[in-house]
Amino acid sequence: xxxxxxxxxxxxxxxxxxxxxxxxxxxxxxxxxxxxxxxxxxxxxxxxxxxxxxxxxxxxxxxxxxxxxxxxxxxxxxxxxxxxxxxxxxxxxxxxxxxxxxxxxxxxxxxxxxxxxxxxxxxxxxxxxxxxxxxxxxxxxxxxxxxxxxxxxxxxxxxxxxxxxxxxxxxxxxxxxxxxxxxxxxxxxxxxxxxxxxxxxxxxxxxxxxxxxxxxxxxxxxxxxxxxxxxxxxxxxxxxxxxxxxxxxxxxxxxxxxxxxxxxxxxxxxxxxxxxxxxxxxxxxxxxxxxxxxxxxxxxxxxxxxxxxxxxxxxxxxxxxxxxxxxxxxxxxx
Length: 334
Fold this sequence. Notes:
- The chain has two domains: 2-30 and 200-328, no CATH class; 41-181, no CATH class.
- It has helices at residues 2-17, 45-49, 54-60, 65-71, 80-91, 94-107, 111-127, 174-177, 185-195, 209-226, 232-236, 240-248, 250-259, 268-275, 292-307, 312-317, 321-328, and strands at 41-43, 135-139, 147-149, 153-157.
- A four-stranded mixed β-sheet has the order 1-2-4-3, with helices on both faces.
- The chain is built from 17 helices and four strands.
C-alpha cells in the first residue's frame, strides 16, 4: 500500500510540474502526395438566417430528412406542427441571430474548413483507396447537436465549435469544452470516422478494458494519419499542460494501470474510470486528465504500427486487441 501511495504522490507532483506541450511524435506524411479529392460540401447557414416564416422552415427540410430527423430530432416531437413551431421560434429568436452572426464571423465563407475536410479525405483515400467519401453538411443548430455521422453524410453544427471566446457555448462541463473550438471540427469528424465499424475492426466478444483502449487507440492513430501533425491537445482536448504531463509520466501511468490489473477488467464501472468522460482520472492522480485509457491506447497502437512497419489500413484491420498489445511491445520506461 505504501508503495502505491508513493507512486501516486510522485505522479501528482510530476503532472502538475509539467508545462511544455508536446505534439504528436510523427506526422505520418505519406511517401507520395495524396491526390486531391472533390468533396460534396453544403452549408445551410444562409438558408437558416433567411427564415421569416414557418413555410421557410418546411422548405429548409425538404429533401433533407436526415438533417431533420437525426440532427434536429424531429421524432422527439409529438407531431410535425409542434416541430415546425419550435424550429421557427428558435430560428427567429434574436439570440439565434447573434449565434449565426458569430458563426459567420468565426468560419466566414467556410473555405478554410472545406479545404481541411478535402485534405483529410485526400489522406484517407491514400490509405483506403476504396473508401467512400461522405457529403459534408454544415449548419447552426442552436446548440442542439454537434455531429451526425454516416458513411454517406456528415453533418456538423458549427455553433458547437466557436471556441472559448464565443458568447454562447455548449452546455457541457469545462473539461469537455476543450474539444469544441474551430480547429477541432475536422479532427472530431476523423475520430468518429476512425471509431466506426467501417474502418475499425474489433472483436465484439472481447469486453475487456484492453479491447476498448486498443479500439480507441486505433481511432486516434487513424485521425493522426488523415490530419497529419495535428497537436495531441487538439485531438484529445487536453490542455497543453495536461498533454505535457501525460507524456512526461507515461511510465508511471502505465505502472498504475498494471498495478490495478486494468487491462483484462471487464466491469463497465471500472472501465469508465479510465476511459469515460471525467475531469480527472483520480485512480491515477487528481491531476491526470480523463480518458487516459484512450490516450494510452493511442500510444500502444502507435508503437505497434511503427515497430512492425505497418500502414494504418493494416492496423485498423487487426481485430485481436491482445495480439496487437503483445506485438506492440508497449512497456514505457523512464
